[in-house]
Amino acid sequence: MGFVFNEMARAGWMASSIGRTALLIWKKLLFVVPLGGVILSVQYYKQSKKSGINVLAVAVMFVLFIILLLWFKNPLVEKRNALGPIYISIIYLLAPRLLNSNVKTMFFMFFTMVVVFPLSAIITHAKSSLRQIIIQPRILLDEFEGEGIGEVFNTIHYDAFINIVGTIDYVKYEGFSYGYQFLSAFLFFIPRKIWEGKPVSTGQLVGEHLIDNYEFTYSNLSNPMVSEGYINFGIIGVILLAIALGYAIVYFLTWLHSHILIKKIMAFYFAIHLLFFLRGDFANGFSYYVGTLIGVMGIARLIDYLIKNGLNNQYKWRQKQITKA
């Protein structure tokens, strides 16, 4: 609870008080567990008529998990790249007809990317903390006036394509990394305190190169999939990464058509997450999805086991009461 309050009180420009790996575990793994609970609650509700599950108990669980999700995942403690896939997936979970065709999804995502996300950027990247906004609500209004929707499109949030050029320039000076940059993604769970030589994300690496050689002022950059492949293995890396991504998409399509609801939703989540993943960088995009996948499908299995036991015990108790009567 204290961590959530600290995140709400922390202004967008301030660094977190805990390490990057610990922050990832908290925000991208543990804080998404309620999403698994929401999915399981909907699944239990759909099965309630066949299995005799108490609908009221399922409804209470659903509301509880929704409250927890809103508490852990809101614009004051989380960025858009996590909020978008979560809440769009919930829309698909509760009202799949709204997003069950390419045309509907295209119009929905167009509206979301052009209107909703730019507006949310003003909140998630506010320079003031929650406490300051509560004391002086005018601060938030000033943020909207100073950085409208049109201005957001001119910010560094849309820097992906130009960073391909930055990556090519980095390779010109430093050469290819030959897979070394991928280690920060695949071994994201190892803290830097244990592995001091752990590579930084490619976005940060290119950003530091631009600072050193071109008097750039910040290193918090994105790095699209194309340049991630290029910095590792050149043109061959671009082709190999495209093939790997194609295989991943085909694999998740089998999940999307699965009868297991949690697999279906996580496949849909991946489709929305691709907007962030393709923008990069690879280390963040990969670790954020894997963390969410573990939090929803791994830890949710334990929740599923506990809930099923509780509901089964309740069902047995009701049957005994009926028998006695």
Describe the structure.
By secondary structure, the protein is mainly α. It has one domain (2-324). It contains 15 helices and no strands.
Keywords, separated by commas or semicolons:
325 residues, 15 helices, elongated, mainly alpha
Briefly summarize what is shown:
With 325 residues, this protein is an all-alpha fold. It contains 15 helices and no strands. It has one domain.
Chain-wise SSE layout:
Elements: H1 2-9, H2 20-29, H3 33-51, H4 55-72, H5 80-94, H6 102-124, H7 130-135, H8 138-146, H9 149-152, H10 160-174, H11 183-186, H12 202-214, H13 225-256, H14 261-279, H15 282-324
The total number of structural domains is 1
Proportion of strand residues: under 5%
- Write down the overall mean pLDDT: 81
Helix content: over 70%
Flag low-confidence runs.
none
Helix count from the secondary structure assignment: 15
What's the total count of β strands? Answer: 0
The succession of helices and strands, N to C, reads HHHHHHHHHHHHHHH
Q: Which value, in Å, is the CA radius of gyration? A: 22 Å
Assembly status:
single chain
Describe the main β-sheet briefly.
none
